[in-house]
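hey m, so remember when u said the tokens were messed up on ur end? i reran from scratch. heres the input so u can diff it against urs
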Amino acid sequence: MTRIDFYVLPSDLSRDGDSFACRLAEKAHRAGLRILIAVDDEERGRQLDQLLWTFREDSFLPHDLQAHETGAGIEINCGQDPGQHHGLLINLCSETPGWFSRFERLAEIVVQQPEALARSRERFSLFRDRGYPLQSHRIGGS
């Protein structure tokens, strides 16, 4: 069963959520996991692709935009079927992809925007009611 982690950020900026997703992907990649980052559309995918190159000067994260079976440790997904990808899903979509349960782990990143908070609360309740193992992590701030 998929383990689901909610990472609650103190910021209300979506770009801070994207930066956190890069840091989380870096940590998971170092641990040997394959990572798929789900975004809503290709424009956001291109933005995240650029951010993965630039978010830290001393880091290189091998990644591909919308690629399958290329051997990249990190893939950015804009809605297509993830194929045989079964590692970590970092969800930056407005909705949780229907195929999330194929993954060992799901990371939901929560920023302090009213709409994002409401969606996150709904997801948490849905996952809890379905018996998924859940953890919540407050990142930074008080």
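this time it looks ok to me. Helices lie at 14-30, 42-54, 114-129. if urs says something different then somethings off w ur setup not the seq
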